[in-house]
Amino acid sequence: MTTIDEGAGQPARQKRADAQRNEQALLAAAAAVFVTSGVEAPVRDIAAAAGVGMGTIYRHFPTRADLVVAVYRHQVEACAEAGPVLLANGGSPHAALGQWVNLFVDFLVTKHGLAAVLQPASVGFDALHAYFLDRLVPVCAQLLDAAAEAGEISADIDAYELMRGIGNLCVGTNNDPRYDARRMVELLIAGLLQSRSA
């Protein structure tokens, strides 16, 4: 009887794991589409990028707001998990910071679009913003600390201030084709490097 119960439970667990992987793949595809086309991108474009039917997307996320919020959370977690991995890759901490900031800029594109889907004054928006700060400020601080310990940057750079500055550089990116926010952010991160006397 124990064997039958275990055998009966295994396919259900496997299905849940498969469904979770499929949902993560769908969210990654949606995030990529949002970064290039904005949060108003057609659902058919997201479905094509994910290799699924539109019905699959609507089954997981009945409304665009559901999808955008899920992508937002997915990107926060991806950014949070990427910081330690980039530091562990053995390169310079400043280079790891630059790579992480690229992921953060991709996230900011979706974050700015979130305001178009949710009311910024709503409780849900505030909770998402608090979640974003709780997860990402410590990761940015860890990258900054590592770069400071390596003597690459000054030790007095505050993670929240840097992230806020990057966010401000990214505002309005979609409204002006002559403005390249990513290039401005790259210049900011390059400017953190301290010159070393020979």
Automatic annotation (TrEMBL):
Record InterPro entries: Homeodomain-like_sf, HTH-type_TetR-like_transc_reg, HTH_TetR, Tet_transcr_reg_TetR-rel_C_sf, TetR_SbtR-like_C
Record has Transmembrane as a keyword: no
Keyword annotations from UniProtKB, A to Z: DNA-binding, Transcription, Transcription regulation
MF (Gene Ontology): DNA-binding transcription factor activity; transcription cis-regulatory region binding
DNA-binding region(s), residue ranges: 42-61
HTH tetR-type domain location: 20-79
Full protein name: Transcriptional regulator, TetR family
